[in-house]
């Protein structure tokens, strides 16, 4: 459940242009479905962005802005679960240059943080760290889903491609920091309440300590975050350098 792809990684599961696998493209029906999905997700994250800005202007403060976008955030972040099903179509169409399993894992980790941490531990919803990862997610997803949409339509502006493979340099560490700080802030409340924990004895002869589980989740960021971050740096060099070479050859 780690390294949720907060600042633009998502294992680079996007429609990759030159870096994608050279396979037969999706049919008209599949393309139409994928375009609609990505347009809706782009619009949804734009709604979240506008909600954040409006709430900030109304309050004059960035504290506790989570409540202004809580419902759309839950809806559209959970809507990313559909992406796990769409990944198969993306893979078969040759537009997924990286691991389908890793991408699905990242989708689930963000949904986990949304529901199992931020929703479940009400006390952390006022933490500034929540705003940190929400802002990172929002900017990332607007760019990412726009990238997918234009790629499917074969009209990808260079600015969106550049943003997709550049802004993650800041957004990814920003988002991961927010996620870790939020989980850390939740720990004392989880320990005190015994949230989602199961103690012995019970008829199933099974125990589970959610507090310990969250600590393990935080530790898992250590090996996963660098792997994903350097993967994106590698993708950036490959994609943008290829674009520059293509421009020079024209």
UniProtKB/TrEMBL annotation:
Its main location: endoplasmic reticulum. Residues 1-24 are annotated as: Disordered. It catalyses: a very-long-chain (3R)-3-hydroxyacyl-CoA = a very-long-chain (2E)-enoyl-CoA + H2O; (3R)-hydroxyhexadecanoyl-CoA = (2E)-hexadecenoyl-CoA + H2O. InterPro entries: Tyr_Pase-like_PTPLA (IPR007482). Catalyzes the third of the four reactions of the long-chain fatty acids elongation cycle. This endoplasmic reticulum-bound enzymatic process, allows the addition of two carbons to the chain of long- and very long-chain fatty acids/VLCFAs per cycle. This enzyme catalyzes the dehydration of the 3-hydroxyacyl-CoA intermediate into trans-2,3-enoyl-CoA, within each cycle of fatty acid elongation. Thereby, it participates to the production of VLCFAs of different chain lengths that are involved in multiple biological processes as precursors of membrane lipids and lipid mediators. PANTHER family: VERY-LONG-CHAIN (3R)-3-HYDROXYACYL-COA DEHYDRATASE (PTHR11035), VERY-LONG-CHAIN (3R)-3-HYDROXYACYL-COA DEHYDRATASE 2 (PTHR11035:SF17). This is Very-long-chain (3R)-3-hydroxyacyl-CoA dehydratase. The gene is Hacd2.
């Amino acid at each position: 459940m780690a390294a949720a792809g907060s600042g633009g990684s998502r294992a680079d599961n996007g429609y990759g242009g030159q870096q994608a696998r050279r396979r037969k493209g999706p049919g008209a029906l599949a393309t139409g479905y994928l375009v609609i999905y990505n347009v809706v997700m782009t619009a949804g994250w734009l709604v979240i962005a506008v909600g954040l800005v409006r709430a900030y202007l109304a309050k004059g403060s960035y504290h506790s802005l989570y409540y202004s976008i809580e419902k759309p955030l839950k809806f559209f972040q959970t809507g990313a679960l559909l992406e796990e099903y769409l990944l198969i179509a993306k893979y078969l169409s040759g537009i997924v240059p990286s691991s389908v399993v890793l991408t699905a894992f990242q989708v689930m980790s963000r949904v986990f943080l949304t529901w199992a941490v931020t929703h479940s531990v009400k006390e952390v919803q006022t933490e500034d760290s929540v705003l940190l990862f929400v802002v990172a997610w929002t900017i990332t997803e607007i760019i990412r889903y726009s990238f997918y949409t234009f790629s499917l339509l074969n009209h990808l502006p260079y600015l969106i491609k550049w943003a997709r493979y550049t802004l993650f340099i800041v957004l990814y560490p920003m988002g991961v920091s927010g996620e870790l700080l939020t989980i850390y802030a939740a720990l004392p409340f989880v320990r005190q309440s015994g949230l989602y924990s199961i103690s012995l004895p019970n008829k199933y002869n099974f125990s589970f300590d959610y507090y310990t589980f969250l600590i393990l989740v935080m530790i898992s960021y250590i090996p996963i975050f660098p792997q994903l971050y350097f993967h994106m740096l590698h993708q950036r060099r490959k994609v943008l350098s290829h674009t520059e070479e293509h421009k020079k050859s024209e």
